[in-house]
Write a structure and sequence with these properties.
This protein is mainly beta and 182 residues long. It has no helices and 18 strands. A hairpin with a 5-residue loop joins β16 and β17. The N and C termini lie far apart (70 Å).
């Protein structure tokens, strides 16, 4: 345990908080993290867990609140976000869900209020917002809707009050506002 090879960490290592409780543990090969790695809060609860491959996080990365509830879970490939990413409120309710492809947001991204009501839906393609995107009030009522067509310069934007009544409607072509209804 806690061995050095040519001045680099090698093998199984543990580190401790000032109070003597376990802070982290993991494996190294010639100073490079390899395999399972975990860190802990001073109260002993798991803080995060991940797997390293050739010094880069590869696979599921989990992060926890100090009370033990899951806070974040990501999938990574060669140290880059690739796959799902879920974030949770401390009460365990899902806060957001995204999908990554080669370290860029790709696909539907959703966010929720702490009470579980949908907050937003955003569509992504290779790191850029696309198609229909919506955001909601905490009562579930639609707040605004953006519809992209033929690229980002052409879009319609609808704004709503918390009671559902229309505030305004906008239409853009080539990035310029061509119509606004209030």
């Amino acid at each position: 345990m806690n061995q050095l090879k040519d001045g680099e960490r090698h093998g199984y290592w543990e580190q401790y908080h000032e109070d003597g409780s376990l802070s982290s543990k993991g494996n190294y090969i010639d100073g490079i993290p390899d395999g399972l790695a975990e860190t802990f809060y001073p109260n002993g609860q798991l803080k995060n867990r991940c797997h390293f491959k050739n010094g880069k996080i590869d696979g599921l990365y989990e992060e926890y609140f100090e009370g033990g509830q899951l806070k974040n879970e990501w999938n990574l490939k060669d140290g880059k976000f690739h796959g799902s990413h879920n974030r949770y409120f401390e009460n365990g309710q899902l806060e957001s869900s995204k999908i990554f492809k080669n370290h860029e947001t790709h696909g539907l991204s959703t966010e929720y209020f702490e009470n579980g009501i949908l907050k937003s839906n955003i569509n992504w393609f290779e790191g850029k917002i696309k198609d229909l995107n919506e955001e909601y009030y905490d009562n579930g009522q639609l707040r605004f809707r953006i519809s992209f067509y033929s690229g980002h310069k052409n879009r319609t934007v609808e704004h709503y009050n918390k009671d559902g009544s229309v505030i305004k409607f906008e239409k853009y072509e080539n990035g310029k506002l061509i119509k606004a209804t209030v």
